Amino acid sequence: MTDQRLFLGSAGLGALPEWLGSKPVRRAVLVPTASNPLPSAPWVDAADRLLRGEGIAVDRLELERAGEADVRRALEAAEVVFVSGGYPLFLLEHANRSGFSRLVPPAVRTGRLGYVGISAGAALAAPDLAYFGKADAVVDPDDPGRPESTRGLELAPFLLLAHRNRGRAARHDREIAASGGQERVSINDDQAVVITGDTWTIVDSP
Q1: Domain harbouring 198, CATH code
Q2: What is the pLDDT of residues 41-82, one digit of tens each?
Q3: pTM flag (> 0.70)
Q4: Domain residue limits at 124
């Protein structure tokens, strides 16, 4: 039994304030790295505004330029880490290189650090992200990430497949059927998965 707390979403943040309010949070670390290759990422600023609107101080941690000491320092000052969306494999590459992948899981499992992941950030919490490199996945064909390993943070017992409602339902269902016992969870943009300890549930995110 672990004391971990995770909020894994697709896009909507409507259910996040209630989750944040379930345990005192004074400072959060916002990781925007997955969106770095994109020309714009309005969802990063939206996350920042939501957190600040809840009275939470926000520090941004850019994994593409961070070293392990930077990551350690940022995480030690926070109660929550928020990993936003973009390219999953690009995010994983820099999470591994910066030490984020080594430092975050133990802090989350003990309950010292809450984890919020949206889209690519939610996928990062999975046991493995190899799905995003499959030729027939057609999820992010322009993803520039080339991680040496596709192993994820292993905080969730499944790989979250986001944006089901954006024409991806059939593809997600094929992946679920072909996953060979490796669990997948497919959600719409107005849904999220909340993990508490070793249990999880899908919640609406209006």
Answers
A1: 3.40.50.880
A2: 999 999 999 999 999 999 999 999 999 999 999 999 999 999
A3: yes
A4: 5-204
